[in-house]
Specification:
558 residues; mainly alpha; 4 domains; 26 helices; 0% strand
Amino acid sequence: MIKASRVVLSLIVSFIYSLAYAVVGPMAASQDFGLHKSFILSFAVCFLVCFIVNYILFTFVPRIRFDKADARISGFFERFKPRTLFLCTWLFIFLCWVPALLVTFPGVLSYDIISQSGDAISGISSNHHPVLHTWLLSVFMKFGKAVFGTYESGLGFLSLLQMVVLSYAFTRFIFTLKKKKVSSLLLLIVTLFFALWFTNAVMAVTMVKDTLHAAFFVLFVCHFTEIVTSASEYFGSLRNRVLLPIVAFFMLATRNNGLHIYLFCFAILFLLKIVGVIRSGKVKKCVVPALVVLIPVVVFKLYSGPFFARLGIVQGDIKEAFCVPIQQLQRVDVINCAELTPEEKATLESYIVDAPQWMGYDRQRAYDPFSADPAKGWFYTYQYDQSPKAFWKFYIKMGLKFPRTYIEAFLSNTLDFWYPGHYLWSYVMYDDYPAEDFALFTEPLTRRSLVMIKPVDDYYRSLCLSESWRNIPVVRFFFVPGFSAWMLLYMLIFSWRKKGFFTKALPLYLPHIAQFGIMLLCPIASFRYSWPLFLTVPVAFIMIFEKGKENELTNSAE
């Protein structure tokens, strides 16, 4: 007799995926939210295929064991001392990325580097881009100019630093999994993924804040995993009590929303664990861990408050955090203009200025359904600051009046994060900005390849800039931001039947859940925002393939 839970899970997941892939996703991609008959057949076929695939996955994945392969692989690596093996793994990952540095030196000059390089040379005045990252650009660019005569030389050393830190973080992650008894075969696969996946190599040498943030996010996941699985052992170590605040601070300081990830993880962990702690009578023993957890928050607040004020650095514009509401209000003006009263139009105009047309409408503001950046540029932060309460009251009023428009705006702006059939922002930057684009802020910066290895250059170009991979069914799914969201769902499903799910399994995934939540608030559904989630997905191996404890989904007969 087939286990009912496996059938129910397969039905639920298949329904959700088919609805996203065959119905809602195409609607948002085409910006036609009408329900057409053609969707019925697409949904039915997708649902049937998904049900079969999911049922097979839920039946056989928890049964997988790697004992024979593990014995051989472990036997080989046990010849090395732990420290030697750690250093060899770190060096292997680092060396695999060296060709990318050689052909792109000083690194990929893309994303935010134009404005950041100007701030780095002329002086940091805003936290629009993380101050710590802009300061690093400043230090290395000025060092390169003073010692070697070019800014590019200094940026090359920064790329080298990024490679060292990121490859260390990956190695630390691998050995965290090893400590938690993850299969040796899976560890080998994860190591090869970190070393050989083209995205990691290119991002390691890209001048963007996401690189160092990803490194410290991975390190934070390592520490958080150890806290979840053995808090007393973790906080009993002085080394950990020192390292956690350091790692956490750098995660907070390398991305402006890092604080939200950190607070979310520990707040939810507290709620999930507090009952057990009270029952065990170990409340007093939680004082030191609580202080250790709070240290990076206090330090970061001092750093981003009084320290910034002393240096004359202003906080980034609040509109950077308002991507979702700005997009929703913009869409209301584009789609529902005729239904707005004169008072509502006037209020809307007090927050968002008129701008170029979109999709042929007579009246609309700067609105791209798949990117909030154009709309943000026309938001009046000053008007918001006069009365935040009035803004949110108006925002809620519009949401109650046009709920469908709000939903459509949210689905459109987050499309790549949940719809595997959309690839607009699924690229990894490889080409630099034209050198003349830097002229307004600093002298022209350009790529000065140390060694032009054409096959390597062609390889990265074909994967980063070509659309060839998008035409390969199944394979293309692994290249899109939405992959990480669905992987997170499957991580939770494979773990939910474990004993003590809410106190043991779910806490492992809190950093992933927080990261995904932050992704949904981003201005665009870009691959670089989902990259940290890709990197830490293997943490699920700790629960899914936990040795010696069968998942209840493996019981196929009563």
